[in-house]
Design goal:
heterodimer; A: 277 residues; alpha/beta; Rossmann fold; 2 domains; 6 strands; elongated; B: 208 residues; mainly alpha; extended
């Protein structure tokens, strides 16, 4: 028995990896149709876009990169589609070196839907600098992008600064949210929604509680919720069953390890008492 | 030379830091223009930092090849793609089909794969490290399990209350703790910034 309990606390990692692979892969091919609870944060994001007037001006800043795309890409696509339905004028702003390729796809999506580049949407060039870029955008947006010539884009010419935007969408897996809060939201108080990876929800949540973020779309589940709300079933909803089973497996291994640990501990304590008598 | 290496960076830090800080509170045009000018310089310097990073990577791998270190053949691959991709992007642009092809079919799947390996590591790490050895660990474990269940459909199917409890954990104890951490970090950053502006902090000059 003792041997079995010790083994339960030290299952070979290859077995755990194999089960993780199975529980993630199987629901991708055979969805289970588990229920989806719409969170307050996602609903608030949806409502913020729904409340925009027709033709509203939106900045979509993204730090999407291959490492985060599994979560951020389905969110971004759902939000851009929703903005397109509202006929929003979108300024795509890639703020990470890898992000321009993702913006290219959103531009292609808009062009395919009949929106006109330069009039309905534009893509800003990538600028290095991280937080410095956010400071520059907050100070003087136009001088942060001096490489765009007057007359090059009708939409850009109509913008004076961040104060002109009706909504700021910030998509990223980490630091951009803090920069956006510090240098843009705090200064202009424009409605602000953020698209994040699930792991940083704990960091970003206080800004939603304080209403500095109008909404948060977090992780794959946030993307799935948004797809359901906006009526664009897509990439995320199909991955939710896999995530559910993945979470369940991790919880099962934690419980298994702890049960074995406590039984072993109780056994040792009983033996120690027996030896002492 | 000593002036350039140690004194000049301190003077630049004092002037740059003070101008940007004062411009946040005072409105004279000269001060605002100076602050904006410093901001533009910061953007330019950040772009140069990227070049510096690429240059450093090139130097390290050129040395690995020169000294024939273990697996130095991979350094040839790195240098080939580093230089090749820079040349491709600089002269033909991001929209060139080859540039897109490499990004979409090599960089993107490889990078996503490395990140997704976390799912496997996290599962074994949770299994081995998450033991309720004391009260604090037990509270952390229970909160973790509840949030994991509250965030996915299967948790909602088991008991809808998981979502409500998760909402409370994230909005009340988590927000309170994160605010405390953020405030402490901000005060720390403020302290270091003031030390730089006053010329007391020299750690960024190499610990002199």
């Amino acid at each position: 028995m003792d041997d079995f309990l010790t083994r339960m606390q030290n299952i070979d990692r290859r077995i755990i990896y194999t089960v993780v692979f199975i529980v993630l892969a199987v629901p991708m091919f055979k969805p289970m149709g588990l229920p989806l609870k719409i969170t307050r944060e996602t609903k608030a994001s949806y409502d913020a876009i729904e409340a925009l007037p027709e033709g509203a001006l939106v900045m979509f800043a993204t730090a999407n990169a291959p490492g985060t795309q599994a979560e951020l890409e389905p969110q971004s696509i759902a939000v851009v589609k929703h903005l397109m339905r509202k006929n929003a004028k979108i300024v795509f702003n890639p703020v990470a070196a890898e992000s321009p390729r993702y913006c290219d796809r959103y531009r292609e999506m808009m062009a395919a839907a009949g929106f006109e580049e330069g009039v309905d949407f534009i893509q800003l060039p990538y600028q290095a600098g991280g937080e410095t870029l956010y400071v520059a955008m907050g100070t003087d947006l136009k001088s942060a992008y001096v490489m765009i010539q007057p007359g090059q884009y009708e939409l850009w010419d109509s913008i004076d600064g961040m104060q002109d935007f009706d909504l700021f969408v910030d998509c990223g897996g980490g630091e951009t949210q803090r920069w956006a809060i510090g240098h843009i939201e705090a200064k202009y108080h424009i409605p602000h929604i953020t698209l994040i990876t699930a792991v940083i929800l704990a960091v970003v949540q206080p800004y939603f509680t304080s209403r500095q973020f109008s909404g948060i779309v977090s992780g794959l589940n946030g993307a799935a919720e948004y797809e359901v709300l906006a009526g664009f079933p897509g990439l995320a909803a199909s991955g939710m069953d896999a995530q559910s089973l993945g979470h369940l497996w991790v919880i099962f291994t934690i419980v298994l390890g702890n049960v074995a640990y406590f039984i072993t501990k109780a056994g040792k304590a009983a033996k120690a008492r027996g030896g002492g008598d | 030379m000593k002036f350039v290496r140690s004194s000049l960076p301190i003077y630049l830090g004092v002037v740059g830091g003070a101008v940007v800080l004062l411009a946040y509170f005072l409105t004279p045009k000269l001060l605002q223009d100076l602050s904006k000018w410093f901001g533009e310089w910061r953007m330019t310097l950040a772009a140069f930092a990227l070049t510096l990073g690429a240059g450093n990577l090139l130097r390290i791998h050129a040395n690995r090849i020169r000294l024939k270190r273990e697996s130095f053949a991979f350094s040839y691959v790195l240098i080939f793609f580093l230089i090749g991709y820079i040349v491709l992007g600089t002269f033909w642009g991001r929209t060139h089909p080859l540039y897109s092809y490499i990004f979409d079919n090599a960089y993107q799947p490889l990078s996503a794969t490395v990140f997704s390996i976390n799912a496997f590591y996290i599962s074994t790490a949770c299994y081995r490290a998450f033991r309720a050895r004391n009260l604090q660990a037990a509270v952390l474990l229970i909160a973790g399990v509840v949030v994991m269940l509250g965030k996915v459909g299967i948790g909602y199917a088991i008991w809808p209350g998981f979502a409500t409890v998760t909402d409370w954990i994230m909005n009340v104890p988590n927000s309170a703790a994160m605010r405390g951490i953020n405030m402490a970090a901000a005060l720390g950053a403020l302290g270091v910034s003031l030390r730089v502006i006053l010329g007391l902090e020299r750690g960024h000059l190499g610990g002199e």
